[in-house]
Amino acid sequence: MRIFGKVRHRPSASWRQATDRAFTLIGDGRYEDAGALLTRAADMEPWLSESWFNLALLHKFRHDWEQARAAGLRAVALLDREAGAPDWWNVGIAATALQDWPLARRSWQAYGLKVPGEGSPSGEPLGMALGSAAVRLSPEGEAEVVWGRRLDPARIEVLSIPLPSSGRRWGEVVLHDGVPHGERTIVSADGATRAYPVFDEIELWAPSPVPTWVVLLEAASEADRDALERLAADAGFAAEDWSSSVRLLCRTCSESRMPSDEGDGEHLDPHDHSEPGHPGPLGHRTAGSGSLWVPERECGIAAPSALVRGLLDGWVADSPDTREWRDLEEVC
Q1: Which of 115, 139, 166, 280 has the fewest CB atoms nearer than 10 Å to its CB?
Q2: Could you tell me the residue ranges of all domains in the chain?
């Protein structure tokens, strides 16, 4: 078949059958069996970019980044368009996982993104200024959507304090997939609505040395709670009132377009803890939400062990009549 002077090869029925069966197996988590079929399909149609795109996709699912990069490069070599192909995005993810910065930069540029100057001696594509986004940690398990800062098209730095069930920490950098899986909308004080994509985590890219603590606070007012969050931020770490910042969503709602609280681009709570079933009409409420302030708060703190108790003691010392803490425990 000839399109605009180029010969486009039509895949055979055998190729289509093998590929369709492979993706059914991928959906069942049978990656080894799917790999055998996709390899056979690539042997049948080696000049078809989709053959190598599909293999690159499988290797991405398996987190086999060397193979994902190799198959992805074969796919892009066979493309018949200049820019915007998802093949380049997958190559960019694999290159980022491997810290192959020259290839990562080339991939984002070939996809059609503007990548700023070298940024660092290693060539890491810093300073892309992609803004805030949400990322779904442990998407195949007890998923949790948290807020973060996009470092580049494939990495997010986690700025919420994740619940300990996620196994993730504040300040960690996670590799994420390219296609958003839901949205969170923020209504600012001036009434403007802004939507933020929710990306699915692929794997941990850079761990954080900062442990997560849980503590019970007695805070007489929201201002007392806010004072602890400011104190932690001023020290270069974080505190988050989980009693008001975490809400329970069913998985279907978590993966859809959901409103969040008012935000100014920096404080974007709540983050979401997902359950397989629907929690009912109250399940979408922020934990602890309501018209009355409850002084007892469960708070997450991200801070070094040498600092956390001093931070809490300093918070109490600033207003001992309205503040107390107890039951501090390291949880992640």
Answers
A1: 280
A2: 2-110, 129-332
